[in-house]
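Entry: RNA ligase, phage-associated #T4-like RnlA #T4 GC1653
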Amino acid sequence: MNDYQAKLFNDLTTLVETTEAFYYNDWPVDNVIYRNFNYRLASYTDFCLPSALECRGIMFSIDTETGEISLASLPFEKFFNHMENPFTMELNLNDIKEIADKADGSLITTYTHNGKLRLKSKGSLASGQAIAAMELLEKDENKTFCEELSKGEQLDCTIIMEFCSVDNRIVLPYIEAELKVLGVRNRLTGGYINFEDIDAEHFPEILNRWTQIIQTDDAKAYIESVDDMSGIEGVVFRMKDGLRVKKKCTWYLNLHKNKDNVNSPKKLFEAVVYETSDDLKSLFHDDPIVIEIITNMEKHVSKKYNHVVTTIEKFYMRNKHLSRKEYAILGQNDLTKPLFPLAMMQYLNKEVDYKKHMVKYFNIYKLEESEALHIED
């Protein structure tokens, strides 16, 4: 690894060791361990920590024979909705460099294993989205596109895409599955290669599948008009300094969730658990009281959620050598009744649905009404 990559790996490792909001998964494949860094429920202050913005699907490969570490896949840094938090407030919209359509699907990035192109989602090498995206890419009609992605990988670049399909949509309907190119990132430097910098002679299909770049003579006015648009999710705009920002139209936000979520502690709790509260903050960015209520719920849920995950994972790591019977007896003694089933799911190598658990036991984890406007960091 070069200095940039080594610092990134060390920062992310420290982040996971010191902050419950961040974690990594190890995926052994042949003689390689793929270490994927991600976040659970993280606050604005969490993302202010060194390299924390990179902790959203970035992946390193670790050679099990030599111990050599390489940066294998480099997605976008975490970016936020306009007016969601201090990262995206008080922006000079006259300094917008580019506006692009925002696709409504799942983030997919490239990596290479044993010389062959592979795709991954933000959190997994084998998620349903990653598998479906790879199956789509391997179709005959995508042969040239696949070859170009492989060439990009050989140049130490990660191609960042959105997988959109009928089965994978969030709100918007898609007639057929497609992979839209969102960006390209150099793994040696972390720098971005933008649409206008792509070599059209050697990468025509990547350009052809790039998400729509919106042409406008007045970027500021266009962004201000997004609120009133319909039929689209919104846009992503890039500032001259490279900062990326999301802007979703009110039509989409109202389809995705209801404003009543803020008035219902249970619905707001669920919105935070399922990571949709950022959109609520965009809707109510000009109401400081509502913003405080949402932010306090985020702090509360993040702390509870991350503690549950850490508790289960630590219990499992300490006791996974035990027989199933011994493990179960210890779990019943050491863990609360709601947590015990999670520990057993972990032991049996089944998916642990922490979010479903949090929602089911809302009455245990809820934020008391008296605390809603009085939470400190």
